[in-house]
Amino acid sequence: MDTQITPDWQNWIVENLARGCVPQSLVEVMAGKGFDPIFANAIVFHFSSISTQAKTALPAAAVLAAGYIAERPRFPMQGSVIKTHDRAVRVTARVSAPVVAVLDDILSPEECDELVRLSKSKLKRSTIVDPQTGAEEVINDRSSFGTFFNANESEFITRLDRRIAEVMHWPLENGEGLQILNYKMGGEYKPHFDYFPVADPGSQVHLKNGGQRVSTMVIYLNDVDEGGETIFPELGMAISPKKGAAVYFEYCNSHSQTDPLTLHGGNPVIKGEKWIATKWMRQGRFG
Ligand SMILES: O=C(O)CCC(=O)C(=O)O
Ligand SMILES: [Fe+2]
């Protein structure tokens, strides 16, 4: 079923709305032409709710984002404990649109320490300049040091990846390798989306392997003395880092629409340092 829209179809919708057609009749025509009805409804509703001037200027990607339709959450929206194969994880807070959950005890203090210990030696290696290209990229918006663990790199990593996938209610093999970030004092991650903007040419290479990102789990590996909250500016929400706790959120539906309300970032660390482990899930198998 069609979930992409060409400029011709966009113009058709805009023109017919301008002629005074009932939106529902346009949805029916589109459904008859093979469009997914939910998708057609989102697009038509979007065009009928914006100003005439904006209608001609909007690229298809913006249309898709603007008409985000929330579907059934992947994450369980009831219950205070999630039982995984080896650990009970507590849910301490939830938001329903977008789906955001704050969790306690996804990792034990010992597991957090072990991830930090294993990462420290890898972080050192990651500062070496690529001998082939000499390239060393500095991203100003992301003042942190990072490394990652490949799937099944060790029994320890396999066990954690499996538990995290169980909590995210998504297949283990759709996960990217567990990413570790270390922010020093002043380190931050400016507000961003975890999904790849479809309109960016640079996104295509990322989307080829596993498709779009659908959900994120950020796990705090230490207690931060001050600052370093994970913030969701559109929701007015801030989560303070706590060792072994995590924040989960989802942002991509079955039509590959992505939810801009999941804009988020990491506040500057004011005192101490901050260690996190991030798991990103894809639509399909990754790797
Ligand atoms: O540092 C944080 O709290 C947020 C991290 C984040 O946004 C990410 O890893 O994608
Ligand atoms: Fe992020």
From TrEMBL:
* Record Pfam families: 2OG-FeII_Oxy_3 (PF13640)
Q: Which cofactor does it need?
A: L-ascorbate
Q: Which domain of life is it from?
A: Bacteria
Q: Which UniProt keywords apply?
A: Dioxygenase, Iron, Metal-binding, Oxidoreductase, Vitamin C
Position of the signal peptide: none
Query: InterPro entries from the entry?
Result: Oxoglu/Fe-dep_dioxygenase_dom, P4HA-like, Pro_4_hyd_alph, Pro_4_hyd_alph_FE2OG_OXY
Q: Name one GO molecular function term.
A: iron ion binding
- List residues of the Fe2OG dioxygenase domain: 174-283
What PANTHER family does the record point to? PROLYL 4-HYDROXYLASE ALPHA SUBUNIT, TRANSMEMBRANE PROLYL 4-HYDROXYLASE
Specify the protein name. 2-oxoglutarate-dependent dioxygenase
* The species this protein was found in: Iodobacter fluviatilis
